[in-house]
Specification:
- With about 140 residues, the protein is of the alpha+beta class.
- The protein is about 25% helix and about 45% strand.
- It has an eight-stranded antiparallel beta barrel.
- The longest helix has about 35 residues, at about 1-35.
- The termini are far apart.
Length: about 140
């Protein structure tokens, strides 16, 4: 009888130890599998604006404001923003200060072509073109993107 009980105890201990090994292997495989799954790509926060120029300094009100429509995709992390001006997509460096988003668009020779400024609270919009000595003023509306 004692021999049977001792055999049962040893078999039971072996069963527990083998289950512990199996559980460890299972946990290790699950953890390794989770690490191999592709993580979801995070998109930076962006703000989509539709800006319409209405007035030009030293020249007066624009005859057709729809001609001066720009679509801005402002990256809120302060990186590169995209400007869609008259169907041409341009990139510019974004600078965010207090209530002002400033996007500087540079040409191929690193010369400043346009400076776009959007006031965050009033959603007013100015475009300064240093080469043409032109400043355009307008308003922006939030878009869907």
């Amino acid at each position: 009888m004692n021999k049977n009980i001792s055999k049962l105890i040893t078999n039971f201990n072996n069963l527990i130890n083998s289950n512990k090994k199996n559980k460890f292997r299972l946990n290790f495989i699950l953890l390794f599998g989770l690490l191999l799954l592709p993580l979801q790509k995070t998109r930076s926060e962006e703000l989509f604006l539709k800006c319409i120029g209405k007035f030009e300094i030293n020249r007066g009100a624009l005859i057709k404001p729809d001609w001066e429509t720009s679509y801005l995709k402002i990256n809120l992390n302060g990186l590169i923003s995209i400007i869609d001006d008259k169907g041409i997509a341009n990139e510019g460096r974004t600078l965010i200060r207090r209530n002002l988003y400033t996007i500087t668009h540079r040409g191929s020779r690193n010369i400043i072509k346009n400076i776009y400024k959007v006031n965050r609270t009033h959603l007013t919009y100015t475009v300064e073109s240093p080469h043409r000595n032109r400043t355009l003023i307008g308003t922006c509306h939030k878009g869907r993107g």
